Amino acid sequence: MIHQIVRPLQEKWLDYKSGKHIPLYFFMHIPKTAGTSFRIMLNRPFRRTHILPSQKEMHKNKSGYINLEEFAAEHPWRFSRIRMFIGHEKLGAEDIFQREQVHHLTFLRDPVQRCISAVKHKKRMEPGMADSSPEEIVQRFRHSFKNLQTSYFTPDLLHEPDDIRLERAIQRMKQFMFVGITESFDESIRLLRK
């Protein structure tokens, strides 16, 4: 008789402990799309302990994002309580959270402007690249330039032809709660607020 009462309570506790019931906001931060500005805005409506990584963790990691699998293993309770994840993670990385409800957000940018910004960033940040030509930078960091925005939506289709990947990226994008446009940042934020 006691097992009929205890067992359901144990199951409910395990389900609660897992955090599956907590909705997750997953910000897929595609590099050089105004994501840092957006990330700062996203910090306001959430408690620090509900954001991964928090500003403190970003600072500790020298403004780099964290390894999701390592963090989940080292901090399982906090990981199960995360409400907002922000990172340079491609679509599908949110599966590690095992949430019943995930709201996807991202920003896109004109591909040429994004590449120009990425070249400037590499010149500033990568050792020995300050005097490199844009062509040399693109050649050396090819993965950061070729169809990067499409790749974030289709990491499972990297060996498919570009037209198939683009079509699938557009389909997946339609399922996002929010897709902002960097060139229309203020207007995008106004739409998100509505």
Structural class: alpha/beta
Assign a percent range to the helix content. Answer: 40-55%
Number of domains: 1
- Estimate the global geometry from the Cα principal axes: globular
Enter the CATH topology name: Rossmann fold
The residue-averaged pLDDT reads 87
CATH class descriptor name: Alpha Beta
**Number of helices, where a helix is a run of at least 4 consecutive DSSP H or I residues:** 10
Distance, first to last CA: 52 Å
Q: Which radius of gyration do the C-alpha atoms yield? A: 19 Å
Major beta sheet, strand line-up? 2-3-1-4-5
> Would you identify the CATH architecture?
3-Layer(aba) Sandwich
| Total beta strands | 5
How large a portion of the residues is in β-strands, by DSSP E?
5-15%
Structure commentary:
- The protein is of the alpha/beta class and 194 residues long.
- The chain has a single domain (14-193), classed as 3-Layer(aba) Sandwich (Rossmann fold), CATH 3.40.50.
- The protein is built from ten helices and five strands.
- The protein has helices at 2-18, 35-42, 55-60, 68-74, 76-80, 111-125, 134-140, 148-153, 162-173, 185-193; strands at residues 24-28, 51-52, 84-87, 102-108, 178-181.
- It has a five-stranded parallel sheet with strand order 2-3-1-4-5.
- The protein is globular, with a radius of gyration of 19 Å.
- The relative contact order is 0.15.
- The mean pLDDT is 87.
